[in-house]
Amino acid sequence: MPLSLENIEINKKISILIADDHSLLADALSVVLSSEPDLVAEVCGTLGTTLELLQHGSSTFDIVMLDISMPGMEGLVSVKRVIDAAQGAAVVVFSGTADDDFVWQAIELGAKGFISKQHPFKSFTTILRLIADGHEFIPLSLSRRGALNSKIQSQIDDRERHILQFVAEGKTNKVIALEMNSTEGAIKMKMRTVCNKLNAKNRTHAVMVARQKCLI
């Protein structure tokens, strides 16, 4: 049965932290959300303030809308810090230009999805209620990319992952062969197969692609 507002019981205020330094957008969105009978929103504009509110603030939040380019943010490391500090709140990536791979890696770390700033304001209330009800929100375009990544992950076996990890550590084929009780020629062949599966130009490129797709 498709999810809709009729499927969701609204019985308490959903508290939302909009962590975004674009004050015009954040303040306007806060007004729109707080005008709903079951939603209340608060705004902050830096990573430091976000962490302070989550860890020591007087409010308890259900959802954190996290802008990945506000002051203090340093990529996935900062996303993980917010997720760890959120005390059970659903953290969603909130951006207009997020890279697909970045979003999927954030989801791997525990984020509950991605909300584009390009969405019309009227759609935010529905999306946020779904997230508060325990669902992830992943746009269709990202879902397709995720399916592709899952297919690639299923094609890479455990032995190939181990080889990729050794390559990422800077080890030569000869050293990897000794580590894996194999031959240098066999490792070269395996690495060639991995490059073909990942559509990589060489072993360095293969490691980069593998990291982007959370294979290692």
From TrEMBL:
One of its GO terms (biological process) is regulation of DNA-templated transcription. The gene is degU. InterPro entries: CheY-like_superfamily, EvgA-like, NreC/VraR/RcsB-like_REC, Sig_transdc_resp-reg_C-effctor, Sig_transdc_resp-reg_receiver, Tscrpt_reg_LuxR_C. The keyword Cell cycle does not apply. SMART domains: HTH_LUXR, REC. It comes from Pacificibacter marinus. Pfam families: GerE, Response_reg. PANTHER family: HTH-TYPE TRANSCRIPTIONAL REGULATOR YHJB-RELATED, NARL SUBFAMILY. This is Transcriptional regulatory protein DegU. Keywords: DNA-binding, Phosphoprotein. The modification 4-aspartylphosphate is found at D67. Residues 15-132 form the Response regulatory domain. PROSITE patterns: HTH_LUXR_2, RESPONSE_REGULATORY. Residues 149-214 form the HTH luxR-type domain. One of its GO terms (molecular function) is DNA binding.
